[in-house]
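Tokens as discussed.
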């Protein structure tokens, strides 16, 4: 009788625990990152009874967390790429907006307007109004160049500030993963529940992949090893933190250089890298175009004569896109614009030469002002489109992996309700066994009396 009671009680305990776990799953059905759990029941060892073996009931060996490590690792790998291309596309889109040529406020339109006004002056070299128009359009062109330079530098400054902020976030994540490693490994030798801790850690590891492009390996003791480009940043319960300078990332503790090429930080660093940064390249392209305009137009203009006979004046002041401006002296005295090659009011040879500058092969590779600028605009367009395509493709891949992962670890309320009914019936059946044993015991006691 006592054996039957023990067996029934083990069934009651097992069913009660299963019901508790089911309730826990239902309560966390909408919690992001939660992995559903299930009891792993095993048959207790049989015991000898009347020269035979009789089972001794059931025991819940552990509460299993339903999570696929391979899927989680695959998701982190794709999320690292997704974070990189999403951020790269965001930065390139900002740069593309600087070179926006879809309206009449772009730099290309200012170039065209300026050279057209110079060409019109060639036909009427004695007109003060046409000279004023050339200077006004030159001022507009210089302003567009300065504005483009300023916008690119603002994007660069903001990106550096964002890198500093994201490095702080990454360091917090690394510290938290190290802490969870200590808690999970420390509880490994007991029956303490680490499932919730592992869910938390998985969420942090995914954020590290997205932010830093970090890779993760789970050791045999269930400790997460986090590395970037082969350098371990979390090993057991210890974490190495990062710092960022203009030349790249280092480990704060020892100054060791570490390459970050994936994730959001990898894309942002690529945008502002001092040697090969995307933003720096486009600033350099603008400077090349602006300095070429400054040098060539100043050479031609300083050799010409204004309506007042003055000569030797530069058309532009400044050295690059950041400080280019029309000579203030010319703006104050439009008649000093040097259109003539010999001082005669009706001569327009210098103006004709200035109008022809747009067709001269002055830029690297033999490009003209127009073709060079078109190449710059085309380059940013191609890079932005490529990053967008990669971003959209990776978003689709990540969505598919998340869907697959949720099918493994996500809570299905229909399934949980089915389990609840099944465990309830098992509990009732075990309770019925206890009741029957009690009735049998009462009957035996009555016979003895």
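Sequence:
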């Amino acid at each position: 009788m006592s054996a039957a009671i023990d067996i029934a009680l083990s069934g009651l305990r097992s069913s009660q625990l299963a019901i508790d776990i089911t309730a826990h799953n239902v309560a966390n059905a909408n919690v992001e990152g939660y992995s559903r759990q299930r009891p792993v029941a095993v048959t207790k060892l049989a015991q000898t009874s009347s020269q035979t073996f009789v089972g001794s009931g059931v025991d819940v060996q552990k509460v299993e967390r339903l999570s696929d490590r391979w899927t989680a690792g695959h998701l982190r790998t794709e999320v690292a790429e997704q974070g990189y291309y999403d951020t790269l596309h965001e930065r390139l889109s900002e740069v593309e907006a600087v070179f926006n040529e879809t309206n009449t406020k772009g730099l290309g339109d200012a170039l065209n307007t300026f050279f057209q006004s110079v060409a019109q002056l060639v036909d009427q070299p004695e007109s003060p109004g046409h000279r004023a128009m050339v200077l006004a359009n030159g001022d507009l062109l210089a302003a567009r160049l300065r504005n483009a330079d300023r916008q690119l530098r603002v994007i660069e400054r903001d990106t550096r500030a964002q890198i500093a902020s994201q490095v702080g976030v990454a360091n917090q994540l690394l510290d938290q993963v190290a802490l969870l490693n200590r808690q999970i490994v420390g509880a490994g030798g007991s029956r303490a529940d680490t499932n919730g801790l592992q869910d938390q850690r998985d969420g942090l590891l995914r954020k590290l992949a997205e932010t830093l492009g970090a890779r993760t390996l789970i050791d045999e003791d269930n400790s997460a090893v986090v590395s970037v480009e082969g350098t371990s940043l979390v090993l057991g319960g210890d974490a190495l933190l990062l710092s960022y300078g203009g030349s790249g990332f280092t480990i704060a503790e020892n100054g060791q250089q570490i390459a970050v090429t994936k994730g959001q930080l990898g894309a942002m660093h690529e945008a502002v890298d001092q040697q090969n940064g995307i933003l720096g390249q486009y600033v350099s392209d603008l400077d090349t175009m602006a300095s070429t305009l400054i040098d060539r137009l100043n050479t031609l203009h300083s050799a010409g004569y204004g309506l007042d006979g003055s000569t030797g004046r530069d058309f532009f002041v400044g050295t690059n896109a950041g400080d280019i401006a029309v000579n203030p002296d010319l703006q104050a005295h439009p008649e000093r614009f040097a259109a003539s090659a010999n001082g005669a009011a009706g001569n327009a040879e210098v103006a004709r030469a200035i109008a022809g500058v747009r067709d001269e092969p002055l830029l690297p590779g033999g490009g003209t002002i127009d073709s060079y600028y078109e190449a710059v605009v085309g380059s940013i367009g191609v890079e932005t489109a490529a990053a967008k395509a990669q971003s959209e493709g990776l978003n689709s891949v990540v969505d598919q992996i998340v869907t697959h992962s949720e099918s493994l670890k996500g809570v299905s309320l229909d399934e949980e309700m089915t389990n609840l009914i099944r465990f309830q019936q098992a509990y009732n059946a075990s309770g019925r066994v206890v009741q029957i044993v009690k009735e049998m015991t009462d009957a035996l006691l009555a016979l003895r009396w």
